[in-house]
Structures are given as C-alpha cells and as structure tokens.
Amino acid sequence: MRDVMLKIFDFLAPYGLDKLPRALMFGGGLVLVLALATGSVQMSQIWLGFFVRWLHVGSGIMWIGLLWYFNFVQIPSMPQIPDEQKPAISKVIAPAALFWFRWAALATVATGIALFIIGPVGNKVYIGIGMALGLVMAFNVWNIIWPNQQKVLGLVEATAEEKQAAGRVAMLASRFNTMFSIPMLYFMVAAQNVP
Q: Which segments constitute the Urate oxidase N-terminal domain (predicted)?
C-alpha cells in the first residue's frame, strides 16, 4: 500500500499536489466524480440539507481543529521556543492561523443557521444547546480573541503592558472556547443520533 501511495503522490506532484489550492481542487474534483458516479447527488430538499450539513461539518472541523491546535500545540509550546524564533510564530504562523480560525467560525455559524432554516435538524433541544454554545464561541472569536490577538501580534498599536494583558485575555477566551467545544460537539452529534 505504501508503494502505491508513493506512486500516486509522484503522479500528482507535477500537477501541483504540493500547492494547497491544487490539493483542494483535486479533492473537490474527486468528490464531484465520486458523488456523480455513485448517484449520491440529488436535486431535492433532502440533498440540499445534506450538502449544507457537509459544508457545516467541514467548516466546523477547520474551526475547532484550529482552536484545538492553539490550545493543545501552540500555546503550550511557546515557552519552549527560543526567543529569537518566536517572531516566526507571531509574524507568520499565528496571523495565518487566526485568519482561517475566525472565518471558519463565521462559515460554521452561517451554514449552521442555513441548516436550521432548511432542516431537518434532528432533536431541536439538542441542536438548540449546541447552537447556543457555538454562537457564544463565535462571539468570543470575533469580539474578544481577534481584537486582543491584533494587539499581541502588533497589528494594532499597543504598549508592552497592553500586549501582555491582551495575550492573557485572548488565551483565556480560547481556553473558554475549548471548554465549550466539548459539550457543543456532543450536542451537535446528539441532535442527529440520540432520540
């Protein structure tokens, strides 16, 4: 299997597999071909609901994946990174990660609202709890984490003391969102699977 996979990588490499936009284009093309070949594309209200749910889950994976990256990898690793290497995080990695983080949060909320409107949404109590938790988390992303991270990253003027305070507030809001993500994920999955 390993040799087969390496041959596939080598075959796709000249077509740009090493570039993220191309990998996403290949993935989109593959899902389209497979969906059409299996007949899983249907022009119906049910299929539209499924498609929006698929977008919602994809956006949510990006959002919560980045949230957990910050909390399980980046924040705990920062004290071990030598000071001369920290600018690579604050000037390159963190701004890019925060861009995708906040827009994935918005996409998750937007597709979640669309899904709720077009339905079916499963158990409305469970989905309501999951939505409420997710909306609080999205509020924190846009109104607490991002404004404070802009100070920390030097994207807006702030004194050294303001940056330190902003870093603590952003970290606490991120940890709060990590805490909320656990019951949010539980109730989002329960809405479709628990009567």
A: 124-190
The Cα–Cα gap between 21 and 65 comes to 19
When pLDDT is cut at 50, 70 and 90, the band that residue 111 belongs to is: very high
CA distance 146 to 28: 30
pLDDT tens by residue, 1-19: 999 999 999 999 999 999 9
Query: Which is nearest to 51 in space by CA: 31, 76, 27?
Result: 31
> Are 183 and 129 a contacting pair, CB within 8 Å?
yes
* pTM greater than 0.85 (yes/no): yes
Q: HSE-up of 118 (CA within 13 Å, CB side)? A: 15
* Spatial distance between the Cα atoms of 19 and 167, rounded to a whole number of angstroms: 32
115 and 74 share a domain?
A: yes
CA distance 7 to 86: 37
- Positive or negative CA dihedral for 30, 33, 39, 43? positive
Residue span of the structural domain in which 14 resides: 1-41
Q: What tokens appear for 53 in the block? A: 């749910």
Nearest to 92 by CA among 142, 153, 145, 147: 153
How many folded domains does the chain comprise? 2
* pLDDT value at residue 124: 85
For 19-50, how does the pLDDT look when each residue is reduced to its tens digit (9 = 90+)?
Answer: 999 999 999 999 999 999 999 998 888 889 88
